[in-house]
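Narrative summary of target 7.
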Amino acid sequence: MKRKDVKRLFRQHPEFKTWLMEDSSRAKEVRKNPDKAEELFRRWNERNRQRQRLDFNSLSQKTKRASEMLNGVQSIMDMMADYTKKL
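Modeled conformation, tokenized:
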């Protein structure tokens, strides 16, 4: 696995990247040998499949992040509407 493939994997699965960074030895392992990322991803994916339960903590974090992004977009839209009213 090449470095660009590892970066793509991280973009597609940010939870995997978070899990990887929790343990510095796993992160060092991937930095030294990007091929290890595929093996670690399989392990992580199998572990997540076995759980098969809702992770409310993760869900609430994602909801909070989405809400913050939407609030930011809404404030930009409000500023644009105010600006057009002044014209």
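The chain has five helices and no strands.
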